[in-house]
Design a protein that fits this description.
It contains nine helices and 54 strands. It has about 850 residues and is mainly beta. The protein has an eight-stranded mixed beta sheet, with helices on both faces. Strands 21, 22, 23, 24 and 25 form a five-stranded antiparallel beta sheet that branches. The longest helix has 20 residues, at about 800-820. It is globular and about 85 Å long. Residues about 1-25 have low confidence and may be disordered.
Amino acid sequence: MKVIIYLISVIFSAGFTLAVHGQAIEPSLYQGKIASNGSWITYTLSYGKIDTLFVENTDTNIRYSFPEASNESFSHEDKWMACTKSDSLYVFDLISAKKHIIPSITNYRFLTGKKLLSFGYGKMAIHELPRGKIYTFEGCLSFYPNKKETTIAIISGKETNEISLLDLSTKVPKRTMLLSVTNKISGLVWSQSSSAFAFFEKHNSGNLVHYFNLKNNNHKVFEISALKSISGNFSIPGSRLFISNDGNQVFFDTVETNNQNSNTNDPLVWTGEMRKLPLVPHPKPVPLWQMWLPDNDKLISVETPDYPLSILTAEEKYAVLMTQKVEDPSVIHESDKADLTLMNLETGNKKLLVKDAVYERDQILISREDKIVWFKDKNWYSYDFETEKSFCLTCNIPSIFYDTNNDRPGIAKACGMAGWFAQGSQAIVYDEFDIWLIAKGKLPIRITHGREKNTVYRVRNPKTDWEPNGKLNSMAGEIYAGKDLALLTKNLNTMESGIALWTPKGGLYEWPTSFHETYGIQKAKLGDRITYVRSSYNIPPQIVVSKHKSLKVIKTSKNGNEPQKVKIISYKGLRDENLKGALFYPTAYNPAIKYPMIVFIYERYSYMAHEYMPVKSSGKIGFNPAQYVRNGYFVLCPDINYQLNEIGKSALFSVNQAIEKTSSVANIDINRLGLIGHSFGGFETVAILTQCDRFKVAVSGAGVMDLTSHYLSVDNNGRERKKKFENGQQRLRFAFYQKGFQDNSPILSAYKIKTPLLLWTGDEDGVVNPDQSTSMFLALRRLGKTTVLLKYPKQDHVLSDAGAQEDLGLKIMQWFDYQLIGNPSPTWYD
C-alpha cells in the first residue's frame, strides 16, 4: 500500500517543482485543516525554503502531495480541495483524484451549490464544479458575496467605480449593473438577510457612506458635513462599517479632525493630572461608532468619549458599552475592572448593568441569543432582557469558579467560560477542574469529574461563524450548537494531556493518554471525528485523528531524539501547596556518577516534561534542555509560586525546594549547579544570586535589574509599567520609594553576588530596556565581579535572527561547560 501511495504522490506532483520526498532535510510538521465530515485533513512539511502541502484521507491513508502550495480549503461538500501555488489555483477532486489548474489567480473561495469563485488580475470566474462549466466576468476590481452566497457585488471601472450584482440563483449567472459613483469604493458589507448593503466612497479627506436596499431599490448617501446636529469638525475614516441583520441600521466610525493640522514639531506635553499619557505629541483621535437610520436620516452616537468601547447584542436592539478603569496617578492600579452599560438603540436610553466587572478575555461575554455574562466577586452573573434584571449564575453552586492558582495581585479572575451550548440555552462555565452547563431556572450540570482525579477539562470545539460587531468582539462567547463537545484534558499529577468527547446522550469518553503534550484540537463540523497534534520529550509532533474509540497517527514529522528519561518531581511551595518540576536526565545516565545540573526558571516550567525539543535548535533564548542532557547535564525546570511583595525570596524558596527534592531522587553534584532564566526568569535568576551562592554559574537574559527605573517608565504602547508591579507579574505593591520595594531590586544588592554571571539582551528590546542588562553588567564590573554582557544588534526581547540564536546558544553552552565541567575558557571570553 505504501508503494501505491508514493506513486500517486509522484504522479500528482508533476505539475509542480520536483517533489521533496526522501530528502535528507528533517522537516517541521504543521497542522492544516480538517474537512467538515472529518474524512480528509491537510498538513504541511517544511523543508526550510521549500514547503510541501499534503492532503490525506483519514480512513484509507491515500495521500496526495502539493510541493510549494499553501492557502488550502475544502469545499462545503468535502468533495474538492483547492490550494494555491504562486499565482495559480489548483482544484483537486478528492474522489476521482483529477486536478484542474487555473492560472493567474490571486484569490478564491468555495461557494454553496458546488461552485467555486476564482479571481485574479481583473477577471472573476464562477466554476460549476460538477459540470465543469465556467462563467467569466471581465473588468472586476473586487467582489463581495452576500451572506447566503446567492448574489455577489462586483466593483469595476477606472474613472468611476461601478457596482454590479451577479445573481447566482439562476441557471446561468446573470450580471446586472446597479449604480456608479465618482470615487473609489471600499469596505462593502451585506446585511445578514442579504436585503441591503453599504459601502464607503472616498471623498475629500474622509468618506461618504452609501446605503442600498434591494427590496425597494432605495439608495441613500450619508455625508457628515451635511449633518448640522454635530458640532465640531468630524470625518468618516472608512474603518468599521456594519449593516444590521434586517438591513435598516448602518454603523460606521467618525473621528474628530480638529487637530489634524497641528504642528508635529510641537513639544510633547504630559501633565500630572492626565489619566492616560499620550504616546505621541498629537495622537490620532479615537474613532467612535455612530448608528445611521437611512429611512429617516437619523444619526445616533453609540460610542462617546465617556463610552469609547461597544459591542452589539445579537438582535441589534441594544449595545453593551464599556468604560474601562483607565490609568491614573494613584498607587494601586485597578485597570482590570470595567463598568458595563446597556444602551437601547431605539431610544438611546442607557442603563448601568454592573460596576467593576473583571475586564479580561473570557470574563465578559455575549451570545447570539442576546445573553450577556460577566465575572465579578468570584462568580458569574447574567442579565435577563425579559425581566430587565441581573442574576447570579454560579452563587448557589458548591464549586470554585475563580483561579486559585493565580498568585498575582488584583481581583480574582475567572477560570473561564467557553460560551453557550444547545443554541444558547446553557452557559458552558469552567471551575478549577470541571465543565458546567448552567441555565436560569434549571439545575446546573457538571459534565466532567476532574476534581476527583486532579484533572482539568476544557472545551476545544471550533469557533462558529457568528461574531458580534463592535470594538469588543474579542469578548464574544462562542456558540456550540452541535451535539457534542471536544475537550482537552490535563492530569495535574502526571502533567499528561489528551482529548475527550462529551455528548448529551453518551456522556464523556476519554482516549487514553501517554505523557503527551496535546494542542491544535480541531473537531469536524459533521460527526465526532477529532484531529490534533501531540508530542512528548522524545516523540516529535504527530498529527492524530480519532476514529470511534481509537486513535490513528496520520503523520510524524521525523524520527525524533534518541531515548531520554524525564521525571516529574513533587515538592511543597510557600503556602504548603503541591508544586511540580520536570527533571531531565543525562543521556546514558549512570547512577554511580555525579552529574552537574542546570536549573531553568520562569514561573511554572513543569509542563516542559512533555514538550518536544529538537536537539538541533537552541531556540530564541539560547537554551534547550535536550542539548544539555546530551552533554552530560541534568536539567531541572521547576514551578515557582509567589508571596506578594517577596518575589525574590519566593523564587529562591521554590527553587531550593525543587533542588532538595531532585537531589534525593538522582545523583546530582550539588557543588556544580547552574542557573538560567530569560525575561522574568532573568530577573529571578539575578534576584536569587543576591540571596545565595549555591550556584556556581548563572545566565540572565533580558531581565529587569533596576526596579525603580523600570517602574517609572512607559512601554512601547505608551502605558506606564507600574501595572506590571501593582497588578501583574512583578507582584509588588510597595510604593517605589519604600524600603520593601528597593529590597526586591537586584541592582541595589549587586554587591552580594558571588556567582559568575553572563547577561544577554537584544539592543532593540521593546519589552525590557536593554539598559537594564547593561546597568547590571556595569555594576558587577565596578564591583570586580566575574561577568559578561552579550548585546545582539537589531534584536528584540527574543532573538529572531537564526545566526544570533545559534551564536547565543553556543556561547551559553561554552559558559556552562567552562564553569561546571572544566572545559577551557572560551576564546570570546578571553
